[in-house]
Structures are given as structure tokens and as C-alpha cells.
Specification:
This protein is of the alpha+beta class. 47% of the residues lie in helices and 14% in strands. Strands 5-6-2-1-3-4-7 form a seven-stranded mixed sheet. It is globular and about 75 Å long.
């Protein structure tokens, strides 16, 4: 497990050197994909029985955050591939082996059921389009949330209760739509994608809302959406870590106009970097505390309670929102230096704002976690 984190640390500076090219391409260039794939960073939670690293959640978070310290787009793709790889523990053995058995496996996709799946003999026929296809251009299998429909296109659960499967599509069945022109996380390649009348054989899917894990172990006692939120939070924390390092470099070299002292010698610069560091450290500590408590419970063989899940989501939303705010403050204090798109600090700021809009960590998550804390009746399906 430590080896995977170490690989991220060793590869990070090389990825950072390619950040401008990554952002300009609006997807990960082939050489970056090859490096991340060779390092095993797209397979964080692939089970050991399939040759995967099966890292614990804290190691997975640390690995994603380490990559985000160097480049947000690359980290986002590592995060999406990693969290999606959890589904190997839910798929039937034959499909799990086909999708996640190869050493170069990489999966991603959008789980909201905007596609339509029509039952046929032997499986489903799927048509639809999805947004937010992060990293899908380099995925070996591409997922999409669907709803089961009948012959007229009306929503209708299958006889066995299947109603909203996340299906796995072969890349050849997917068309990419060039929509990803954005302010931040440009390198993640989170473009729209679509398929038409693609056949998906029986069982090559996971119904995320009520899936029961095939494998036994602490990883598969964690909620999928909570793990996704954890990954997003890890990206946010790592972006702030990198921005703090970059701000220190700027502050030591820059003398603001009208001043006889460097930014590092000014109270404003000192306060900005200190408060940003406090945010990065405190959000990481809160998240690790929430994950650690849940991991101990899961490792003991017990299911996670609603309170475990609530605190994980509370910690992830807190991290994403506070880190995004801290990034903006660093940009403001860096002054004109940080207005240039070529400036790494500027890129981290924009990436952090986009990360904070993700539905799993958006500010409105505090409504969910607050309702539960107040004992109000709350839909916890996506908790």
C-alpha cells in the first residue's frame, strides 16, 4: 500500500511539468495516461484476488491528494478510476475478472441514471447520454447510470426488481461529445458521452442504491457515494497543499509594488499561508478521523451506521468548501502574479472551485448532514 503512495510522490513532479499541456489538451495526454497506468494509480481499490492493490481508504485518499498536489486533472482521473474500481467487489465474478482482471484496467463514468436500459434475452440494450465523463477517453470500460424501461420507453422495473443499474460499456460502443470547455479541472476530460442500442450482457452492472457486495472486507462495507465524496475531498486538500507550496515560492521572490519588503516579509503574506496551512491540516485531520473510526468498525466485520456515513459526508463537504475558499484567498494575496493562466497557483485555484461544485461535496450536503443531526426524517439513500 505504501508503495502506491510512494509511486504517486515519485511521479508527481513529472506530471506537474506537463500540467500546461494537460490543461490545453482538455484531457490527459497519452504519455500521462501511460505513466499513471504503469504506476497502478488507476486501480487503487481493485481487489487483491484480481491482482489489484486493494488499498485501505486512508492510503487511497493520501495517494489521490498527493497527485492533486501536482496536477488537479490527473488527480481527478486517478480519483474517478479508483472509486469506480470499488465496484469490482460487487460485480459477478466473471464480469469482475473481465473488467478489472487486466493490469491496465481503468474504469469511470457517471452514475446518475440518465440512460435507458431495455430488458432483452440475455441482458439489456442501452441507449442514452451522460455528462461528466471524467477520464472516459482512456478508460478500458465506461459506466453509465440507467433506468429500466419497457418497450414504450416508460420507466418499469424488471421482474427481479432491477430498476437503475450502472452498466459497463465497451469503449467501442461509446461516442464522445466535445463539451468540456471549462474554467477548471480541464485536464480531467470530463466530457459528455453517449451510446445507442448497446448490448450489455446479464449482470454486467451494479445497482448502486442497494447493491450487496460479493466480497467480504472493510472496503466493501464502505458506501460507494461516501467513497466518491472522500475522493473529491482528497483532491481538494491536495490542491491546497500544492498551492501553499507555490504561494511560498511566490512570496519569497515577489516584492509587491510600492513595498520595500517581499510578500513573505509582509503580514498579509504570512497570515495567508498560515491560515491556508491550518485549513489543509484541519480538514485532512477531520476526514482521517471520520474514515479511521469507520474503518475500525468495518474491519471488525460490522456494517457502518448512518452516523458513520453522515460524519464522512460532513468531513468531505467541509474539506471541499473550506479548501476552495482558502485557495481563493491565496490567489488574492498573490496579487497580479496569480492572474496568468500559466501560473500553477491560478490553475489550482480554478481546479479547486470546480471540485467544490461536485454534488457529493457541494455546500447543500450540509443540509443533509444537518437534518440527520437534528433527528429529522431524511432520505439517506445516497448517503
Amino acid at each position: 500500500m505504501a508503495d502506491l503512495l510512494q509511486r504517486a510522490r515519485e511521479l508527481g513532479p513529472s506530471i506537474a511539468e506537463r500540467s500546461e499541456r494537460i490543461e490545453a489538451a482538455r484531457t490527459l495526454p497519452d504519455d500521462v495516461v501511460d505513466d499513471l497506468r504503469s504506476a497502478g494509480l488507476f486501480r487503487l481499490f481493485v481487489p487483491a484476488e484480481l491482482g489489484g492493490p486493494e488499498v485501505d481508504v486512508a492510503t487511497g485518499m493520501a495517494t489521490i491528494a498527493e497527485m492533486a498536489r501536482h496536477d488537479g486533472g490527473a488527480a481527478w482521473c486517478v480519483m474517478i478510476a479508483g472509486t469506480t474500481s470499488l465496484l469490482a467487489g460487487f460485480l459477478p465474478p466473471d464480469h469482475a475478472a473481465t473488467i478489472y482482471g487486466p493490469a491496465d484496467s481503468c474504469t469511470g463514468g457517471y452514475s446518475v441514471p440518465t440512460g435507458a436500459a431495455r430488458p432483452v434475452d440475455g441482458g439489456l440494450v442501452v441507449s442514452g447520454s451522460w455528462e461528466w465523463g471524467s477520464g472516459t477517453r482512456h478508460c478500458t470500460w465506461i459506466g453509465g447510470g440507467t433506468r429500466i424501461v419497457n418497450g414504450t420507453g416508460a420507466t418499469a422495473s424488471r421482474a427481479d426488481g432491477l430498476f437503475a443499474p450502472f452498466v459497463f460499456l465497451e469503449p467501442g460502443d461509446v461516442e464522445f461529445v466535445d463539451t468540456w470547455h471549462v474554467t477548471g479541472l480541464s485536464g480531467s476530460g470530463s466530457t459528455d458521452y453517449a451510446t445507442r442500442e448497446a448490448f450489455v450482457p446479464e449482470g454486467r452492472w451494479v445497482q448502486l442504491t442497494d447493491a450487496k457486495p460479493r466480497l467480504d472486507g472493510p472496503l466493501w462495507r464502505f458506501p460507494f457515494y461516501g467513497m466518491l465524496a472522500t475522493g473529491v475531498a482528497a483532491v481538494a486538500i491536495g490542491l491546497l497543499d500544492g498551492a501553499i507550496d507555490r504561494f511560498a515560492e511566490i512570496a519569497e521572490a515577489k516584492t509587491p509594488q510600492g513595498s520595500g519588503r517581499t510578500l513573505a516579509e509582509r503580514a498579509s503574506g504570512q497570515t495567508a499561508i498560515s491560515t491556508a496551512e491550518a485549513t489543509a491540516r484541519s480538514t485532512r485531520a477531520f476526514l482521517l478521523d471520520a474514515l479511521g473510526t469507520a474503518w475500525d468498525t468495518a474491519s471488525a466485520g460490522d456494517p457502518l451506521s448512518i452516523e458513520h456515513r453522515r460524519v464522512i459526508r460532513l468531513a468531505t463537504a467541509d474539506a471541499a468548501q473550506r479548501c476552495a475558499d482558502a485557495l481563493i484567498n491565496l490567489q488574492r494575496q498573490a496579487g497580479g502574479t496569480a492572474v496568468y493562466l500559466r501560473e500553477p497557483l491560478q490553475r489550482a485555484v480554478r481546479d479547486g472551485q470546480v471540485a467544490a461544485t461536485h454534488g457529493m461535496v457541494a455546500e447543500r450536503i450540509h443540509e443533509l448532514t444537518g437534518r440527520i443531526r437534528l433527528g429529522l426524517d431524511t432520505d439517506t439513500t445516497l448517503l
